Amino acid sequence: MIGIVVSRADPASVHIGDHLLELDDWGRTTDDTRPDGEGGGTVHRTPGFELRTFDDLHLDLEGVADVFADPEFVVFASKHAGDTGPLLTAHHTGNFGPADHGGADGELAHSCANAQARVLDALREHAPSGYDVGMEGTHHGPTDVGAPSMFVELGSGETEWDDPDGARAVARAVLDLRGVGPYRDRQVVGFGGGHYVPRFERVVRETDWAVGHIGVDWALDAMGDPADDRDVLRRAFEQSGATRALVEGERPDLVSAIEALGYRVVTETWLRETTGCLLYTSLMA
Predict the structure, then answer these.
(1) How far apart are CA 256 and CA 245, in angstroms?
(2) How far apart are CA 116 and CA 91, in angstroms?
(3) CA Rg, the chain, in Å?
(4) What is the model's pLDDT at position 279?
(5) Does residue 279 contact residue 243 with C-beta atoms inside 8 Å?
(6) Mean pLDDT (whole number) for 215-230
(7) Distance of CA 132 to the CA centre of its chain
(8) Per the omega criterion (within 30 degrees of 0), is the bond before 129 cis?
C-alpha cells in the first residue's frame, strides 16, 4: 500500500488531493484514534492507496508513516515554489547540512528511487501543455518519515497551484504508481550539479538505473569538508539502497571520501554500458 499525504496548509496539495479522490473509487472510513489534523478523521482508501489529510505542512510531518497501515512508501502531494514557471517535479527529502526547512541536521529520509523514476515517467505522460517535468536534488524535511518517501509537486506559483489541469496531472501520475515498489536492483547516489538535476534525470530516463539521494552543489557546500562528514555520506548510500555514486563536476575530495567508505564512483558512460547487462563480479568490483 502507498500512503498519500495531503496538507491543508498547502493549496496545491489540497487541489491534488481533490483530483485524486475524483479519479478513483475511494472508500471512506473514520479514524477516531487520532485528531483530524494529524491524519485522523476521514480516511480514504482504494486498492493500493490510503490517503490521509493533515493540518501541518508536509516538511514538518515527522514519523508520518506510522499513521498509515504499513505503507511500502509515502507520497507527499505538494506545491513547488520557485522561479521556474509551470513545472511538475519529484524529489527525496533530507539535509546534507543544517536543517533550515524541517527535519534534522545531516539526516536523510529513506528514498524510493524506483518509485521516483516511475512517477517522473508518469508526469511526463500526463503533463499539460506548457508544463515542464523535472527532478530536484534532496532538500528539506521531513527526515524521519518511517518509510521510503518522496515529494511529488505542482509548481511553481499560485497560478499553477490553482490549475485544475496541473493538479489532475499530478494526481494521475500518483495513481499510476499502483503496484510499483520503492526500490529496484540498480540504484545510485548522485552528487554535484545545480538544484534541478538534468543529468541525473537523464540517467533515470535513458538507463535502467534509478537515482536515490542527490547532494547538489549547494547542499554539499552546506555539508562542509567530505572528510569530516563521512557519516552524512554513508547515510546517503544507506538511505538510497545504493553502493555506487555518480559525481558531476570535479570533486576529488568527495570522491576520496566516498571510496574510503567502501563505495564506488562510476561514470554516466558506465551506467549506460551496463544497462540491460548482467553485472558480473568483475564489473561490480
Answers:
(1) 12
(2) 7
(3) 18
(4) 81
(5) no
(6) 95
(7) 17
(8) no
Q: CB-based contacts of 267: which residues, under 8 Å, 6+ apart? A: 246
Boundaries of every domain in the chain = 2-175, 187-284
Yes or no: say if 65 and 3 are a contact pair by the CB < 8 Å rule: yes
3 state SS of 208: coil
Task: Show the cell assigned to 63.
Answer: 514519523
Q: ω before 142 within 30° of 0 (cis)?
A: yes
Q: Which of 149, 77, 90 is nearest to 121 (CA)?
A: 90
- Three cell numbers written together for 103: 527535519
Cell of 93: 527529502
CATH code that applies to domain 187-284: 3.40.50.10700
Q: How far apart are CA 199 and CA 228, in angstroms?
A: 27
* Mean pLDDT along residues 72-100: 96
Nearest of 52, 154, 62, 160 to residue 103 by alpha carbon: 62
Q: Domain 2-175 is classified in which CATH homologous superfamily?
A: AF0625-like (3.40.630.50)
pTM score of the predicted model: 0.95
C-alpha cell recorded at residue 23: 479519479
Which tens digits make up the pLDDT trace of 102-160? Answer: 999 999 999 999 999 999 999 999 999 999 999 999 999 999 999 999 999 999 999 99
pLDDT of residue 59: 87
- Strand 27-31 and strand 2-7: the pairing is unpaired
